Amino acid sequence: MEIQVREVPGGHVEDDPVWALIDELGQSDWVRFTAGFHLSSHVLAAYSAGPLPLGFCRYVVQPVGPDTGCPPFTLQGQAVHEAKILAFGVPERWRRRGVGTALQRAAIAAAGTKGCHQIRSHSSGENVENHQLKLRLGFAVHPIVRDDDVRGCYFILPLPPRG
Ligand SMILES: CC(C)(COP(=O)(O)OP(=O)(O)OC[C@H]1O[C@@H](n2cnc3c(N)ncnc32)[C@H](O)[C@@H]1OP(=O)(O)O)[C@@H](O)C(=O)NCCC(=O)NCCS
After folding, report:
1. Whose CA is nearest to atom 30 of ligand 1?
2. What are the extents of the domains in the chain?
3. First-to-last C-alpha distance (Å) of the chain
4. Ligand 1: residues whose CB is within 6 Å?
5. For 53, 118, 127, 131, which has the most beta carbons within 10 A of its beta carbon?
6. Mean pLDDT over residues 55-80, rounded?
7. Helix spans in the chain (H)
């Protein structure tokens, strides 16, 4: 299946057909969530032949550090930025056809063009499909305990250094 990934025009996500999919996957809160340290926010949607999206991914560009309560991590006085994926999903009827992988690859490529040092996300312990997908793409795993979830983790992929 040929898959194309496009960014949903900024500020119009709730008016876009992708919103029904986000709602169906129960991830609307994670798409609406904002924080003062977010520098920009982006929603990517995957398509095949038709006009309706098959999956989505939302990431923000932010300094490394503040979302875990740390000060911004700096290099020679400059804050280091990352892309953080806050929401990501493909409905069951479209799974195991490469849609999720295409969305992650598009997010990785976009993060590189936005000057990010790394791309990162948190996954709860129950999201084992996502764990498999992330390892296949080469992400490192950093386990973390959150409340009673002892199998959750951060996935982090360093991006190639820019010139
Ligand atoms: C995670 C998710 C987005 C993957 O979407 P997808 O389109 O099915 O992913 P892909 O088809 O690109 O799968 C890529 C690889 O991931 C792994 N994978 C995906 N689903 C899997 C499953 N159910 N069991 C084992 N491995 C799985 C496989 O290695 C797969 O490659 P393969 O099909 O060649 O074996 C989808 O399962 C999903 O929406 N899950 C629920 C929400 C979620 O976990 N979101 C992420 C955290 S917020």
Report:
1. 133
2. 4-158
3. 35
4. 55, 88-90, 95-101, 123, 127, 129-130, 132-133, 136
5. 53
6. 97
7. 18-24, 28-32, 99-113, 128-136
